[in-house]
């Protein structure tokens, strides 16, 4: 299976108070760190930005870039843009936000191996589906298009429209009891804890 990646970077970071994608992290930025990691284990890596005016930090030369077709409409629209951009370049895509500092190539590979004959793989933590840090076949684009046409903006709904393997907590914890690869940073406090846990930078 050819696995690409979609990194959603078009959010407004309102809880953080400043652009998450440009926050310093491990000698790079949150977005740069995520792209570097994914470039080592997936291809291609496409970043979905808000629009051409959004200022992004420096990224690997090989990084692809596309934009939300509708600004400020949520992650499902970003997934749509990423899947459409990838087209026939790969079979499936790992989809993640730019704010997952403890993602690992091992976790991406493990999730990809859970796909099997399914159309998507999502974790479910405390009863809530996790549509980011998930795998989607590129063929799910038709279902995404249909949802957006219906006015749906939450990617969790996609799990009801395509054959989705749901990974419950027991499965996740058997792989990684810390669930670190699913942790995102949404506030200054969470960001500071991530920086400290990574060694201070």
What would you say this structure looks like, in words?
With 201 residues, the protein is α/β, with parallel strands linked by helices. It has one domain (3-197): Spore Coat Polysaccharide Biosynthesis Protein SpsA, Chain A (Alpha-Beta Complex). 30% of the residues lie in helices and 22% in strands. The chain has helices at residues 30-39, 75-86, 105-113, 141-149, 158-161, 169-175, 188-197; strands spanning 3-8, 24-25, 28-29, 45-49, 64-67, 92-97, 120-125, 128-137, 164-167. It has a seven-stranded mixed β-sheet with strand order 5-4-1-6-8-7-9, with helices on both faces. A two-stranded antiparallel ribbon has the order 2-3. The longest helix has 12 residues, at 75-86. It is globular and about 40 Å long.
Number of spatially distinct domains: 1
Judging by the overall fold, what is the CATH architecture? Answer: Alpha-Beta Complex
- Helix run count: 7
Instruction: Work out the number of β strands.
Output: 9
Overall mean pLDDT stands at: 94
Helix content: 25-40%
> What is the class in the CATH system?
Alpha Beta
The portion of residues forming beta strands comes to: 15-25%
End-to-end C-alpha gap: 35 Å
Shape: globular
**Structural Rg:** 16 Å
CATH 4th-level superfamily: Spore Coat Polysaccharide Biosynthesis Protein SpsA, Chain A
SS-derived structural category: alpha/beta
**What string, H for helix and E for strand, traces the elements in order?**
EEEHEEHEHEEHHEHH
CATH domain topology: Spore Coat Polysaccharide Biosynthesis Protein SpsA, Chain A
Q: Biggest sheet, open or closed, and with what strands and sense? A: 7 strands, mixed
Which residue ranges are poorly predicted, with pLDDT under 50 across at least 5 consecutive positions? Answer: none
Strand order of the largest sheet: 5-4-1-6-8-7-9
């Amino acid at each position: 299976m050819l696995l690409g990646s979609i990194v959603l970077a078009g959010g407004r970071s309102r809880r953080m108070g400043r652009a998450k994608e440009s926050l310093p992290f491990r000698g790079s930025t949150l977005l740069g760190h995520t792209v570097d990691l994914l470039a080592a284990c997936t291809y291609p890596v496409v970043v979905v930005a808000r629009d051409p005016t959004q200022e992004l930090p420096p990224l690997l030369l090989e990084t692809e870039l596309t934009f939300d077709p509708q600004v400020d409409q949520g992650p499902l629209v970003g997934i749509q843009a990423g899947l459409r951009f990838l087209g026939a370049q790969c079979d499936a895509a790992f989809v993640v936000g730019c704010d997952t500092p403890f993602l690992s190539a091992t976790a991406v590979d493990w999730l990809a191996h859970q796909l099997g004959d399914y159309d998507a793989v999502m974790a479910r933590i405390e009863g809530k589906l996790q549509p980011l840090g998930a795998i989607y076949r590129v063929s799910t684009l038709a279902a995404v298009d249909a949802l957006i046409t219906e006015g749906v903006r939450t990617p969790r709904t996609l799990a009801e429209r395509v054959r989705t393997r749901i990974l419950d907590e027991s499965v996740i914890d058997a792989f990684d009891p810390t669930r670190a690869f699913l942790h995102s940073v949404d506030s200054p406090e969470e960001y500071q804890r991530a920086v400290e846990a990574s060694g201070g930078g």
